[in-house]
Structures are given as C-alpha cells and as structure tokens.
Amino acid sequence: MITSNIVIRRPRMEELNRIDAFFAIVIEHTFLVNGLGALADTKAEELDYKQKIIRADFATGGEERFFLLAEHGGEIVGSIECGPANDLLVACAKNELQDVPEVGTVFVHPHHQRRGLASLLLSTMFDALWRRNVKEVCLDSGYKEAQRIWTHVFGEPTYLAKDYWGDGSHHMVWHIPLKEALGRFSSRCDSVILDKMGIQLAVQD
C-alpha cells in the first residue's frame, strides 16, 4: 500500500542540506542491508556522487540531471533522477546504451520502504520522461537487494557483468522501453486513486 499524503515534486535549492542528509541516511542503510557496512570509503564515494549530481540538476535547471523528490509531512522520504548513463553501466552494456537516459537514485527512506513509494516514483518519472518524448531508459545496480527488486519489476537484466564485484556479486543492467514501463505502472499512477489517497504530483514546480 502506497503511503498516503505524499507530494512528488522538483527539488528546491534552499533544501540542499536536507537532501544531502537524506542521501546519507539511505546510503548508510543500503550498505548495511547489503552487508557492505564496513566499506567506509565506498560509502563516502557514493554520497559524494549523489551530492554532485543533485547540484548538476540545480546548475542546469534540470537539463543535465532531472530529480524528483517525495515528501511526507514535510520530510523528504524519496528521490529519483534521470540523466546520462554512468560509465559503469555503459561499459557493462558494451557501449550499446551510451545515448540512452539512465534512471537512478531511486532512494526511499528506511522508515517508508515496502509501501509502494519506489513504484510511485518510477511511474511519475516515466510519465514525465514520456512527455519529454523519451522512448527508452536504462538502469543498473550492484546491490543484491535492489537487483532482486528490479528483477521482479522489470524481468531478467538485459546485461549481466558476472562476478564484477567479486565471486557471486554481479552487476546488472536493464534496458527498458518506456511505453512498456508505463503500461506496467499505469494502474499505480491513476490520478483518481492518487487523489483519494492525498497524493499530489507536482512535477512541474
């Protein structure tokens, strides 16, 4: 069940510190649940990268990176972004997706996970991209928990870099036609249902 009273909107410059703090919370939790809590340097690099790309959104007015945030009771509880495919994704896909936009930073606060918020963020982003005439997207993950979720949602990965992170730890890439993705999520983003739940989609702000 999707958390009620959610607002999905564009980020604001004045809340940059709050966004950075949200990223730090989710990254710390992600590393812990994936058994990677001891990798302090890698966590720091991940946080630095997320801080860099949210600033790229502000610097380019959403042209280089396009973020959406989910807010609940004045608290940032989710995020998603779209931008150029990262170097690892492109390499794992054998340079076949270098011109395909990547959807990433699908973050949900630990206290709001398993409530359908990631699906709502994805459906809202897919709809926004479709209206921008984007026809295909890609996404990747090296986290086992995220891989399990994306495989459930999108099927088997299009590309698999076997043992990339070590024995039994693969990197996965999905290439997704946007029309197909919209079909999967359309019922979850029905405007009447969302209105009854108090969910506002303010992506033009």
Can you characterise this structure?
Helices cover 41% and strands 22% of the residues. It has 205 residues and is of the alpha+beta class. The protein has a single domain (6-202), classed as Aminopeptidase (3-Layer(aba) Sandwich). The strands form two sheets. Strands 4-3-2-1-8 form a five-stranded mixed β-sheet, sandwiched between helices. Strand 2 and strand 3 form a beta hairpin. Helix 1 (16-33) packs antiparallel against helix 2 (40-60) and helix 4 packs across helix 6. The longest helix is centred in the first third of the chain and has 21 residues, at 40-60. The model is unreliable at 187-201 (pLDDT under 50).
Can you tag this structure with a few keywords?
205 residues, alpha+beta, 5-stranded mixed β-sheet, 7 helices
Summarize the structure.
Helices cover 41% and strands 22% of the residues.
